[in-house]
Write a structure and sequence with these properties.
Layout lengths: L2 E3 L2 E2 L2 E2 L2 E4 L2 H10 L12 H5 L12 E7 L2 E11 L3 E8 L7 H19 L5 E7 L20 H9 L3 E10 L30 H12 L3 H17 L7 E7 L2 E11 L12 H14 L2 E7 L8 H17 L5 E5 L3 H9 L3 E16 L1 E2 L2 E2 L1
Helix pairs in contact: 5-6, 8-9
Length: 369
Amino acid sequence: MFTSVKAVSGGNSLPASIRVDAAVWCRRVRRAGLSRAWDVLFPPEQLYADNSSFDVGQERTFVLVSVGSLDVAAYVLAMRGSDCCLVDVRSREDADQAWCDVLFQHWHDHAVAAGAASMTGPVGAFAFITDGVPVGPPDVESIHIAQYPRTLVDRFRQHGYVHAWSGTVWGRRGAGGTSARSMKGASPSVRRGTWMTIIPTVRTLESVLSESFATLPWHRGSGAGLLSLARRYMLVGHPSLMITGSAEGQPAGAILMYRDIPNVPERIHQLPSAIRDLWLFFAARRSRQVHVSVIGIVPVRRSSRLSAALFDAAADLLNQAQHVTTSWIRDDNRASRMMSERAGLEPLEQRFVFRKQLPTLSINNGERE
């Protein structure tokens, strides 16, 4: 069951505030046609019901935004720690561009209050995930196929939101100086496929990260979510890549590499799950796109030798790989940039998260002050 509150002004329906559990939310997202293409591989249940990544206690707040009878966007509020709210936005491909105004108005008038009311502790900052926003020329799409108008990003910038995190797609230039982006299929419609071969199993990888990195802040938002997807879509015994380093006997970082599926035909989504998963598995093995995720690397200034060794190992694997055209790494720290340089990669596109410091909201006995 869920409850919704909808106001009407001038004949237009304002966004509805809906509080549901994860299962109900995921069903509603599918019925509204708001699922992204890669949800076939990684369904909402895996992305949003992972308490190891975002823990809000016993409940979370989910919001559906609509204009008239057309659902145009939906997002989920979830806490990371006690001072950051993560927001993910979805839209229908046939949605009217005017939904940017509705969404932004909703963010201020409804989402802040709805999010704070369901969370314990102070809320000092909100982050807005805009995966899928074109950040370059109109023909440049993000690594996610969802279509988010550039104007939405501009709207948040105009109202004081600032860039807080970025991920960059890096790629080598192909023969004849052609950028990997210009190649057909350079913008995949599936986020993650299967992992590159080498060394430990997914279970081993999961165990090492859980035991060694569980207390570090980055683990809750990166390693945990990544591995929850790996558990679902890979044979446990299938080899995957984990490069780890250690400092003073303790693991201090990991680099994960996995293949991406550039294009998934629509007909594949309608096949029985067993056949579909088999097709995706072999398609990923043939993929020319390899993603690199740097997890838990210690700052270069504290352990430059360790970071350099990890990056050199990953660069060697990339250089040895046949027909690899693009790679993805995080670009929010010096260590990640260092790896891209050592691997000879070039920036292709970016994804952004915006954060804005809001007045602190204190919650006492379920009431917001």
